[in-house]
Specification:
Largest sheet: 4 strands, mixed
CATH architecture of the largest domain: Orthogonal Bundle
Structural class: alpha+beta
Number of domains: 3
Mean pLDDT: 79
Low-confidence stretches: 76-102, 130-142
Strand order of the largest sheet: 6-7-13-10
Radius of gyration: 31 Å
Shape: elongated
Distance between the termini: 83 Å
Strand content: 15-25%
Number of helices: 10
Amino acid sequence: MEFKDYYATLGVAKTATDEEIKRAYRKLARKHHPDLNPGDKTAEAKFKEINEANEVLADPEKRRKYDELGANWRMYEHAQPGAGQPAGGWSPDFGGGRGTYQTLTPEQMEELFGGADPFSDFFHTFFSGGGAAPGPGARRGRQARPRRGQDVEYAVDLGLDEAFTGTTRRISSSRKSGDQAVEVRIPAGIRDGARVRVAGEGGAAPSGGAPGDLYLTVRVLPHARFERRGQDLYTRVTVPVTSAVLGGDVSVPTLSGSTLRLKVPELTSSGRVFRLRGHGMPTVGKPDERGDLYATVEIHVPSGLSPEERTHYEELKRLAEQTTRQ
């Protein structure tokens, strides 16, 4: 069993005031909340740790007993099997009433993350009211609840244009009332590999428990004209030789279907990259916040010449050779 440094988890000193703890918790909870980090397992684990730390440090009684625990926590770990409490009569049964703080309850955490217990063995051992660790499958530190239904996961393919605008998918969901179609909204800006959660639309639960959740795992397919890198988009734009040499306007397509005018300066070489701000992918939950579009120049060489064009190009060649000899 690993000792949990709840102060380090919240990034506060052991002398932190209640207000400092509250501010630290709120800041970190907003940053790592699963609704703002869909499919991010690292953010999910961090959110659980933050919630558990606040459960202890925001409750004055639990915090006092946590501070008293200090280095003595290993006394319980080394107790004889089946003893129910550590040697020397020191009891880890901390209990304590709940204070007026905003930690998510185990039930709320289960709604967010499914049936897995959101609290660590360390927390249950010392702060859930029992000294002995529970057996496999037990609901630790509280009365057993009806089993919830199984989570269901589907893989869905999206075009890059669908990821740009957002879209919907109709998914078959199995519930007690029978199969039914669920329309799932996929937000604009979603990334490849992200998951979309639909609470309560998974498998039906036995014995009257809550249904599981439905998850869509997104795969964004390659696009013929655009490449995505983070929130930015990359494309290639052909520029006539004359415009590359003398300068001019060229059309740049966007993923939204519109066309932008790009002013190319004279003597632009092939491979030069231009940035068009705010025409990249939107951010999930913030459709007005977008990345940029990068256009790479490809100089277009004509496939044929008219007699007049050939005359002009030959004259240009003659001038270039004359300049080289000087």
